[in-house]
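Section 3.1 - Work completed
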Amino acid sequence: MAAGEPGALGGYYFRFLPQRPFQSLSSQESTSRLRQWSMLGRIKAQAFGFDQTFQAYRKDDFVMAFFKDPNVIPNLKLLSDSSGQWITLGTEVKKVEAINVPCTLLSMSFFNRLYDEDIVRDSGHIVKCLDSFCDPFLISDELRKVLLVEDSEKYEVFSQSDRDEFLFCLFKHLCLGGALCQYEDVLSPYLETTKLIYKDLVSAVDLAPSLDETTDAVLFNHFSVRKHPQTKKIQITSSVFKVTAYDSVGMCYPSRKSHEQTFSYFIVDPIKRHVHVLYHCYGVGEMS
């Protein structure tokens, strides 16, 4: 089966779900923060439904079918490199790359080591450092150093498997922001926004009503997830992929230009049969 053949892709059919709200990106507090981080107007989440059983090992077929689908083509949004306006793809996808992104973390306590290692003070203030550049990012504090500088003494606070996790990827993207990012002095806005977006995009099942849902660190409490019939614990059911698409010229999605802060993640819920697309294109966000 050739990956480029429409109709040879396991028969997936998609539908656009414009009514699905993403409060984590649209609330007043979130938009204020995204504006400060130069991401407002350049980050978007969209929801699509699909009609067949999702099989993670056939992710490339699934993603190719997505880009070929007549309900996706006029609705999937990306930013134009030239005009900076939201557009649709307008080119035929010939090849896709879907990199599996681990998504197993259930608690924000994952980030407590930032306090333990004096990257963030007990007060929540991020420890400053002498300015340096890790192109194109200005590094003026220990947080950005631990995110970007591989030969820094505290880089190993997070292992490679930690850094691969979707929760870490989200956190890092928000910390680095867009082209005119105004960095936070304290950690909490990054953690709070990361948590909101993660919960908004990722699905989990739960059979642990003893869990203390007042604990802020816990991402999924039993009010927000469905009961799992077999297991006795919370389990994330979503699969996450970092997606790139190519046409006959080269890379066409998420952009023609490659950048660490230009990304598209597909978060697939196999139970609800929903795909959430989280997209961002690096550049100057909305200012006012």
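Second construct:
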Amino acid sequence: MGNLLCCVQVDQSTVAIKETFGKFDEILEPGCHCLPWFLGSQVAGHLSLRVQQLDVRCETKTKDDVFVNVVASVQYRALANQAGDAFYKLSNTRGQIQAYVFDVIRASVPKLKLDDAFEQKNDIAKAVEEELEKAMSNYGYEIVQTLIVDIEPDEHVKRAMNEINAAQRLRMAANEKAEAEKILQIKRAEGEAEAKYLSGLGIARQRQAIVDGLRDSVLGFSVNVPGTTAKDVMDMVLVTQYFDTMKEIGASSKSSAVFIPHGPGAVRDVATQIREGLLQASSLN
């Protein structure tokens, strides 16, 4: 019906290419236009001005000979003031953009090692965008943005990279664990040394208290019981302690058979040994 009435509708964000007898005439903006077909006017086609996206997957290799698939996303649109160039100069816009993306990526990525490619993917995207902008502007297209959305190494390479990362983390964990055990052993040794030192102080003070107590007992007994000597009192105290020790050994439920010399001579020998030890300790002090 529109053709019969010589009317053409152009949708929003779209322009129409008007030809007269097969020759480019003008660009028709969105809206309704009158095209007298009997005068040779016609619409050769429509051109969208919306932003379009093209995803390009390019296989290449890095400087360290690792093959990767680089996925680039190119956002582009036709310029309204150059719609004639965009419509007539290119027959396959997407194929042209893909060719330029391949050319730039395969020229940039082989100069980088794999780790550097991941770190410098913004630089790769910028190089692709600059090259596309310079080339496609002559054909009436604007490059809105170019992104490197993914860099995919071979599956074996990714597995090897993960194993290297895992090994590094395990080595760090082992070092930390060894350091913790080292600190624990040092602290344990310091604690044992401190405990032994304090135990030694306790034993020394205990023996000093025993010596002081025995001395006070001997002096008090000698004063209160006339005719006794210090030797008599000491012998009596040692015999008493001797029997107390035997009583404690026999009363213990965990005691096994213990063989000790017993008799007046044995007691006298024990008393002599203890007395000599005390005398030596007194002389040293």
